[in-house]
Amino acid sequence: MKFSELAALLGCRSTGAGDDFEITGISTLDEACEGDITFVTDRKFISRLDSSKASGVLLPETLAPVGIPHIAVNDVWSAVVTTLKHFFPDFARKTYEGIHSTAVINSSAEIADNVNIGPLAVVGPKVQIAAGAYLGPGVVLGAGCVLGEGCTIYANAVLEAGTVLGNNVIVQPGAVIGGDGFKYELLRGRWTKIPQVGHVELADDVEVGSNACIDRASFTKTSIGPNTKIDNMVQIAHNVRVGENCVLVAQAGIAGSTSIGNNTILAGQSGVVDNITIGNNVLVFAKAGVTKDIPDGEKRLGMPARPFREESRIMAVNARLPELAAEVARLVKKVAELETLIKK
């Protein structure tokens, strides 16, 4: 489409376009080619426009006009999403239509219309799959799983028995939902497995990344709230409850029976011990180790995790330890010299 047509689609107007041009694609500042449009989300990236080969740019209304054709928008990422959906309306990694002949489907499963199931997928007894769902190659649904409308389960993901998914849930390749929780007790000198008889529930619009694991509850349920996004290789243990609109970044780990509120972020490789409560709107920074409850709205950093400002001061001091150690050594030597003088 023309650059001016994109502006109209976004409810804006193009500026500095001169001769209107045909858009050939959308890309990043560094990778855009002639004919592409790109986008700038923050003032700090403006200088990189000078070296970009893009023919046009989406940028915030608050930024001053730039030297190439641009469309000023209220929210850049919303404009990017609209643009991508317009340019790629059918984009999805759903490569199979209908039910493949090699899929193994139990006769008691209930499958709605417009469900696509790829090769070698396995659908267990009493599974319920709502309309518009997609199962990629090698997906396994254990007995009694329930999938809401529009769910997408990519290749080789496993949903163990009793797992319940709301509408429009996405499970990326290799994720395992509903595996046994890690629960053992020392009985007569031997670690003995405690049966895990609960299940997992994922609410509407949850996304689970590749190779992430969400364990079934010991007795009731492990639950993930609406619109929560879980990155690759995240571990969520049994009985954990995560609220809505949370973000759990790669390699974060949550131990059993911990409760997390709404709109909370756990950054990469952060860890949370068992049986604590983390409130709403909390930010846990990367590699932080949370060992205590966190109230609403707090930020935590470090290992063990401390309030952000406190840990920042500690880290600043730690960075100066070599020179501080040298200074202490100098002072010790000076004190020794003074003591000698006093004795004389």
**C-alpha geometry:** flat
Average pLDDT, all residues:
93
| Estimated radius of gyration | 27 Å
Distance linking N and C termini: 92 Å
Structural class by helix and strand composition: alpha/beta
The profile of the biggest β sheet is: 11 strands, mixed
Helix coverage percent: 10-25%
Beta-strand fraction estimate: 25-35%
The total count of strands amounts to 37
Q: Uncertain segments of ≥5 residues (pLDDT<50)? A: none
Strand order, largest beta sheet: 8-11-14-17-22-25-28-31-34-36-37
Number of helical segments with 4 or more residues: 4
Key terms for this structure?
single chain, 344 residues, alpha/beta, eleven-stranded mixed beta sheet, ten-stranded parallel beta sheet, 4 helices, 37 strands, 27% strand, flat
Description of the molecule:
The structure is a single chain. This protein has 344 residues and is of the alpha/beta class. Strands 8-11-14-17-22-25-28-31-34-36-37 form an 11-stranded mixed beta sheet, with helices on one face. Strands 6-9-12-15-18-23-26-29-32-35 form a 10-stranded parallel beta sheet, with no helix packed on it. β36 and β37 (306-307) form a beta hairpin. The longest helix is centred in the last third of the chain and has 23 residues, at 321-343.
Structure, briefly:
The chain contains four helices and 37 strands. The protein has 344 residues and is of the alpha/beta class.
